[in-house]
Amino acid sequence: MADGVDVISLSIGVDVPSPYQDAISMPSLTAVDRGIFVAAAAANNPDRWALQNGAPWITTVGAGTVDRSFTAQIVLSNGAMIEGYSFFQLDIFAADVPLYHCQRKLGCGSSSLNRSEVAGKIVLFDDVDPEGMHTAPDLLDSGAFGGLLVTNHPETLFHPDEGYFPMIALSQGSGDTVRNYIACSPGGAKVQSLRFRLTKLGGTPAPKVALYSSRGPDAINPSILKPDLLAPGHQILAAFSRERPYTSLGEYSVVTDYGLMTGTSMAAPHVAGAAALLKSVYPEWTPAAIRSALMTTAYVVDNTGKIFTEQQTDEPMTPTEFGAGHIDLKRAMDPGLVYDLRTQDYVDFLCGQNFTEKQINAILRQRGWHCRAELKVEDLNYPSLTTTTIKVGDKGPGRTVKFRRVLTNVGEGKSVYRATLGKRPADDENQSGAEKAVVSLPQRDQEVLGHFGRRRRFPGKGLLLSAVD
């Protein structure tokens, strides 16, 4: 902070029982007090309540996929062309390379690759389990030319650091094509050619919520919707230190200047970069105003027009997985209205959380603070409305929960805003009405029903959307 930074990106996290013991949360509040925007990774544990960095003054970021994939092309000797996923980064000559079908029912397993049978061949594996798959070293040690691994989720099978060996992940359909070809080739099946280093853009659906991205709610503050945002975090090209091996190959270490990396630690810097651009255009904006602009202009539907789904299961996701949605920097440049917060608001929030004076001293890292009032969590001027007061099985008349919000116009001076409750997904400005999605959140000794919608305000120019939980 001493060097005058405007934005901090934190790709780290710790599990802590309370904010006054959090070595990330406490100094982050000091940074926010000095006008510094803080973005932090939500962590890489997809279990409920596993989210980290959930303090309300931190912008918590989950990881989404992108529409780009790294592929390879196989041409069989019968002319059939098949596409799969691969991180192998070399051009290799492959002409009429024999195919070997490693069938588990015949005893072919990870510990039984026979070098005399597979050496110099491309090995096909059936129904690969990511937890017990043949690794690149297994194939390398056996002298195999390459590997074709058939799985239900080929796009997530490999890790980028396995790109030193020519392995290709295939879908079950593509695997059937290869298996049928082998079965119909008693004289020996062969691969005519291989092409690697292919990049495919425009994949659908995208983005998805990454399978590893930590889910909310935040265990410490479940009444504040977390994560805040989704940003690109899957297979991101990142600078890499040569002091740390990218991967190991036997006794050798592989180093690189750039490598593909995955995780919420890659997503947080995207939000930090977006915040820096917003700060350069609007230097007077507070960290909360910047976060608000990013959240209220985020989108929640993929490039097929459907609500975000989970990367591997394809199940529809909710704001407890993607927050307000995926960042859209262009729209964030003109948010219309923002939900602003100052340090005193966070102090009042802490005062309403039943902390002792000593604990608040530790969180604020200062003395001399005062409480204007004990602020209810529902009244924290956050860009989402969340309550956890409704339990499964509750009977009787409906309960009313009141929220108080103050909005600041950062758009044109004379703007008229109209509030409506929109459908989910809510990326179409012409939608009207209301839709509720219900999700059960395991919560230690009970379940909570989450009702998700999108509150929207339409000015003549600009758009504001708020997640309603």
List the helices and strands and how they pair.
Elements: E1 7-10, H1 25-33, E2 37-41, E3 59-64, E4 69-76, E5 81-85, E6 97-102, H2 115-118, E7 122-125, H3 136-142, E8 146-150, E9 167-170, H4 172-183, E10 190-200, E11 229-232, E12 236-239, E13 247-249, E14 252-254, E15 258-261, H5 264-281, H6 287-296, H7 319-322, H8 329-332, E16 337-339, H9 343-351, H10 357-364, E17 384-385, E18 407-409, E19 418-422, E20 437-443, E21 446-458, E22 464-468
Parallel strand pairs: 1-2, 2-3, 3-11, 6-7, 7-8, 8-9, 17-22
Antiparallel strand pairs: 4-5, 4-10, 6-10, 12-15, 13-14, 16-18, 19-21, 20-21, 21-22
GO molecular function: serine-type endopeptidase activity
Domain Peptidase S8/S53: 3-325
Family: Belongs to the peptidase S8 family.
Q: Can you give a write-up of this model?
A:
The protein is α/β, with parallel strands linked by helices and 469 residues long. It folds into two domains: 323 residues, 3-Layer(aba) Sandwich (Rossmann fold); 132 residues, Glucose Oxidase, domain 1 (3-Layer(bba) Sandwich), CATH 3.50.30.30. Helices cover 18% and strands 24% of the residues. It contains ten helices and 22 strands. The strands form six sheets. The chain has a seven-stranded mixed β-sheet with strand order 5-4-10-6-7-8-9, with helices on both faces. Strand 13 and strand 14 form a beta hairpin. Helix 5 packs across helix 6. The chain is elongated. It starts with 6 loop residues before the first strand and ends with a strand. About 7% of the residues have low confidence. Its main location: secreted. Belongs to the peptidase S8 family. It holds the Pfam family Peptidase_S8. It comes from Linum tenue. This is Peptidase S8/S53 domain-containing protein.
